[in-house]
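Purpose: get a first structural picture of the assembly so the mutagenesis plan has something to point at.
Setup: three entries, given in the order below. No constraints added.
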Amino acid sequence: MSAHAIVIGAGANELVAAHYLARAGRKVTVIEAYTMHDAEGWIPPPIVRDLGLDGAGLKVGRADPWLTIPLPDGGRLALPQDVMQSAEAIRRVSPHDAERWPAFCARMASLARMLQTLYEAPPPDPTRGGLRERARQARLGLRLRGIGRKEIAELFRVLPMSVADWLDDWFETDALKGALGAAGIRHLRHGPRAGGTAFALLHRHVGEPPGVFRPATSNVMDALAKLPGIEIRRGVEISGIEVRAGTVAGVTLASGEHIAAPVVVSGLDPRRTLLDLVDPGWLDPELVRALRNIRSRGVSARVDVTVARAPGFAVLAVAPSLDFLERASDDAKYGRISREPYLEVRAGAPTVDGRYRLNVHVQYAPYALAEGDWDAARRSALGDMVVHSLAAHLSGGDDAVTERSVLTPRDLEGTAGWPEGQPHHAELALDQFLWMRPVPALARYRTPVAGLFLCGPAMHPGGGVGVAGAHATREILRR
Amino acid sequence: MVKKCDAIVIGGGHNGLVCAAYLARAGKRALVLERREVLGGAALSEEVFPGFTFSVFSYVVSLLRPEIIRDLDLPRHGLHILPLESTLTPLPDGGHIAQWNDHDQNRHELARHSLRDAEAYDELGRLLHQMARAVRPLLGMLPPDPASLRVRDLASLARLGGHLRGLAPEHFHALHKLLTMSSADYLDEWFETEALKATKSASGIIGTMLGPRSPGTAYVLLHHYMGELDGVFRAWGFAKGGNGSVSAAIAAAARRFGAEIRTGAPVANVIVKGHRAVGVALESGEEIQAKVVVSGADPRRTFLDLLGPGQLPDDFVAAIRRFRFRGASGKVNLALAELPRFAGLPDAGPHLRGAISISPSVDYLERAYDEAKYGEFSRRPYLDIVIPSLLDPAMAPPGKHVMSIFAQYAPYALNGGWTDARREAFGDAVIDTITEYAPNLKGAILHRQVITPADIERTVGLTEGNIFQGELTLQQMFFFRPVPAWARYATPVPGLYQCGAGTHPGGGVMGASGRLAAQAILGEKA
Amino acid sequence: MLKTTPFHPRTAALCASYAWRRWAGYVVASSYGLSHEHEYHAIRSAAALLDISPLCKYLVRGKDAARLLDRVVPRDVAHAEVGRVLYTPWCDAAGKVLDDGTIARLDDALFRMTSADPGLRWLEDNALGLDVEIEDATDSIAALALQGPASRAILQEVCSKDLGALKYFRTTAAELRGAPVTISRTGYTGDLGFEVWVDAPDALAVWDALIQAGTPYGIAPAGMLALDMARIEAGLMLIDVDYISARKALIPQQTSTPFELGLGWAVNLDKENFVGKRALVEAAKRGPAWRFMGVEIEWESLEELYADVKLAPQVPAAVWRTSVPLYTDGDQVGYATSGGWSPLLKRYIALAHIESSHAAPGTRLEMEVTVEHRRMHATACVVRRPFFDPERKRA
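Result (structure tokens, whole complex):
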């Protein structure tokens, strides 16, 4: 059996890439490889338009209030989407912070817009002086110039900062800083005092409305899977990518089946793709070193719980202060699970029997434990701790939770293909950003093996639904 | 009586003296006003105990710019830099790992711990040498203002862009990594020996309230190699007579060029008339007029104390207020009756002539940082130790020694504040730490002096005791230092300039800020 | 501290000159006698015994040992039969030479690789995904070179194996006075010669046996100065002297492809893949910009320069290792990197990098020579390497 293009993985990036390739006239087979996870965040309008996602029933949801923050006095601070309304909500805890909130939201929006400009195209390559590259950079430069050089300088100043310093410059309320700062450390092993976490906060803000610092949710995975034009083979395990004379020849499945194709696009992480599935003999040793040095330290677990009563929030952040987050990260630094982890709870729609599913992000639960490994006992202890911590925030206390399931970083590596449990495949850090993502030699979605491309979350921009997939296709079709 | 001169330099620290020397060399009548009776600011030698002389606050000469050594002919004015040949890291298990200047000796020593690391050391050394070559011009460059549309800034920015574009791609990428990574992560890519990683990464945290795992700390690794590039000048080492002799040499050069230097002359404020700095008022009431006033004090003191926020635009004041200092280190100076004896090493071996680094693992450094994050000093701090009397016997009476210990973390914002008792407790922690590796140390101590960031602030006037006049983090470097658009030594008040380490490139006993400030004042192209 | 080799108890006792030098972190004799002349002539007329233990040695074993080496070096390792020794350079991904050395196939799945610089990290990093074990045997294996026309006869005295059957660039396991050794017919002198590889604890016994057996044949322990002259006569390059490893080069101009070092014969572009192949395919298409050649300084021209200052011609007493410019019509077209007076050939010879357009044998260039403090130009003729290539080397 043969196909014109094989796409490995069935995440948003892979499906977007598959549909773009199909639209360009390629026959496309998608090999699912891992179970899919919901995609969250920004969906660039061109992708919606090009693929006709609206026609496929795409619905983007954004809770209002978008975040609920428990306060030390037992109350809650709920932040509506409207900036002025959220400022009013903040005024009850701090008039100072309420004063600054609109300016903060505007500044964040302006900084995130600049990142968005960079994210809407494949990464620039400042080391190449070719005519096309120069023209591209000039275009990009002009668009950025429209934003103003002062703002660009401000972006350069803010990116390397710690989210703690950045927020300390604006606000005084611990609860507000903790909840905002949490977005700067999500899926990073660092705490909020580490440099570059201000960048992570901005990165997550790209594509979201001003004043909203949590990603939108959508049914985009369903919509992408429903779109016609591609073949998706589910439940298939891949065992190798074949290379002949430096050119990709196809893939081999665990069943022994070969599928020949002149183009293979992998959404799996670059290390798995190039070091496990391809014979590394095709790679230069320097590239092998660089691949091994990609940082992908998973630090989060996911706990799904069912509760009997309505939780009373859409998204709840348990991150009472920046110091709380910092202390939680201290544990992870030495390979321990945080004794008091940062939790972020997302409530789903009521189930048919009237109960509620809550999805809990638990950080820090490091993939690499200093002592022991992720076994059933640790998994269960983590579940207990989360349920116990949640009790304070749910009506019904310790008995609120009726069911739970725990996915440790190791589970997530196995089921979702996240290396070390890291959903971004390569951590979101300034040294793995733009032309450095995931490593300079691969930043343009191409690999040293002709015909083999990368399109996963490890690729620029490392955020947004399907953006890397769309950029990768552009590179593939340029050949 | 009102005195007049071309330029007043506030503060007789090494940058102020360098600035005055360059101004005087260009024929300007320059007057340095130092608050204390001694010159040198933090680069100071003092006979703290009879017969025992210390570089009280600083400890090594790191990156004193060779052009300054040349231009001011400092060796003729008494500067003699003695090289440090090695860095020894004693280990808790009684072992040690050392880095030596001699290539073969270094290789054998590292190979004892890891053959791979011994090889990687040379390869990393080559890369950082190349990187240092690429970055060094920035140290001697007036930083452009990226937001400015003035021709001068655009041209300067284009030069910078061209310079960076001229790098080979692999070097451009390596530079990107150095600027954005944590020193621990960066070294993880190269080495497997924990103590080697820790000791090298420690250079990235010196003087900064960050741990070695915090991004932004890798860049400082380059500084060591920049020192090596200027190898013939032996810019990395220990100044004979202590760091005060660096200041003394610069002061002598400045005087030789005609600068006047007054000590015991504390400046109360900068006098502004018609939005222009026209002179200074001393605490004595004396007023001195000058065409330009150059402040070697740190940005907060310069703008909020000596000038006053009322003279400045609001956003500038806001930027100064958010400029971060966070002094993180202290010093312990010991007068010793005998040399420390480290387990498994000869009693008075050559290892004592270099630096001794207490940095057995990255986790050790991180734990030290953890305590400081929450407002405590490290009970087991990172220490960088030198014994200057082995290189310069005149520092101590015959047969006796001085030990100079840089100790981190000692946070300025200590819970409950620094008191005499807390200072001594910190001193005990430092001595207990060394004693774990050199058990005879405690018994060898004749005198000790403990200096906290609060002491540094009080004595030398460095805000929050930060030895670099402001944290050297990416967001406070180059054209952001100290305030974006005001990184070219001028200030919003015409006639007022800055020349301290709070400006680009800042840090260490380097003198570059003073030199560049003088060039900016003289309108020279840099 | 510097390391000493397992032979140091013997070499130290013999080193009447007290002239030592560093080699890869070890201390070895520059010459044993007060002059190295006798040691040099022993190489060419009798036999010389040289301590070459500082060479880096790696044992590569396992199912994929040949695959690893084939990945690292441009020569064809997989097809080398057991007992074969290959001299080869190896390159980085840009096709620039990192090092050169030998690979001996001791068994189907066992190789001994030698290199000038430590290369464990490079080997290991190339071994990703391969079933192979790499052991650094630099300290555990001692090595002697026995070189010269009498070397076979001497070695045969103490060795049971028929060495007449051991062909050029072949190796065999043997016993030498009871000590297990491997003997390879290799060397760095361009003469008939052998290298003996022995576990460090047996090193002194092997030294003593060879000295004892060799004494009737005129064996002499020889130091680095004698070797340096011999290897130049043999046209063999030396890392850090005649070329700079791409691992140490600070600027691209300091690096060389194998083609530019005259090692194109060792690059097999038909192999499926090896490190640097892509770059070397391109380099082969372009052709090398530089050639690594011999030059002979013409005596008459040298004599004239000295005659002008009323002196007899002078030649260097030992090999020099500095960069010396080569010109044609005043333009620099190359540089010699090591050279000296060949006592055997009675010629002043040097190894040189020359721009390809001026590198044809027979081309007459000018080489800078310093005559009585003044820099002059002497005529130097481009010649093929080696300068000296006796039949006995291969016979």
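The radius of gyration of chain A is 22 Å.
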